[in-house]
Amino acid sequence: MSDLKELEARLRRLEDIKELEDLLARYSLTADLGRTEEYVDLFTEDGVMDLIDMGLARFEGREALREFINGSAAADAAHTALHIALPTVFYVDGDDATGEGYSVMQQRDLSDGFNEPGFTGVKVPIKVSVSHANYSHWTFRRVDGVWRIVERYIKLMASPEAPEIFRKSIKQQAG
Question: What is this structure's pTM?
Fold first, then answer.
C-alpha cells in the first residue's frame, strides 16, 4: 500500500511541475501580447513583481500589476519577447511552491526590416538581440485548485546579489 501512496505522490509532484511550467508559459505570452487581465489573473490577490534590481519598482497587488503591464508590456509588445528560460527548478510543498531559473528579454530591431509581400506596411524584423537577462526566484500558491504567482523576484545576471536567487538549488547541490 505504501508503494501506491508513494507513486501517487510522485505523480502529483510531476503534475504540479507541469502546471507550473504552463503557468510560466502563460505568464510570458500574456506579457508579450499585452493581455492585461489574463496576466494579472496569473497572480494571487496579493501578488508581487519585484523589479527593483532593474531600476524599476516593486509592484504589489493586482492594481499595481495591472498598471505595470499596461505601462510596460503593452507599450513594448510589438517589439519585445519575454522568455522564461528552462530549466526552471521547482520545489513543491503541498499547495506552496518556489521556482528558480532564468529569463531573457529579447528586443526586435525593426530598422533593418523589410516589407513582406502581402503584408503592406508591415516590417518583418531580421535582427533580434537580448536586451537583458535575469535570474528569477518565483513563489507560487495553489488557490482553489489553480497555481498562481505570489511573487517574482528578479536580479540582473551581473548583480552581486544574483546568487541569492538560487539559494535552494545551490543548497540542494551542496547537501
Answer: 0.81
